[in-house]
Input
Amino acid sequence: MVTTPAQRRFATVMAARASAAAEPGQSLAGSNAYELMLAKLYDDKRRLKEIQSVERKIEVKREILPDYDNWVAGALEQGQGAQDEVLVTVMVWRMDVGDFEEALRIASYVVKHDLVLPDQYERNVQTVIVDEISEAALAVQKDGQTFPYNLLWETMSLTEKLDMPDQARAKLHKAMGYELRLANQLPEALEHYERALTLNEKIGVKVIIKELQAEIAPGNA
Output
């Protein structure tokens, strides 16, 4: 495990060199630095697969994610868009542990270069990003808590032109509508709720839309 500042910097440099050497769309396979990280990733995946508890899986991911920080830093610093299974997996794991800010930082690179997820995820990158962040937001909102609107906005900005199931995008609009309503931005909230309903009539916002329409109506302002 990397422990000293010099070792950490070396790992970052090696990742940067490996990422910079590969052409966009190519795989990093064959790079010694990448193969080492890939071997570690597979070991960690095997370890996680043996754990049945979701809660424990999240704990283990939190423990092992720092081991990938230098690889991520190097890839984002000089990467040219080569397919990188380590990077995209770390992005998903960051969402799994609730570190959405770092996940979106990686996601911006992943989306820009059209990187793909391993087959096990069975969804494209943008759908995973929107699903994971929207569902996390809706879960805390259901408990009466708030979710950082800037993360929802960034998710929308990153993925709004990309193809995904309507149900996924509907969840994001619903989550954004909730936060805007709390911020008393009622017309904007209504727009998001109406868009969510258009995309998925079973999204569960019809009552909220009627409430907002009544609140916005002339005489209630």
Observations:
- The mean pLDDT is 89.
- Residues 1-122 form one domain.
- The CA atoms of residues 134 and 172 lie 5 Å apart.
- The chain is about 70% helix and 0% strand.
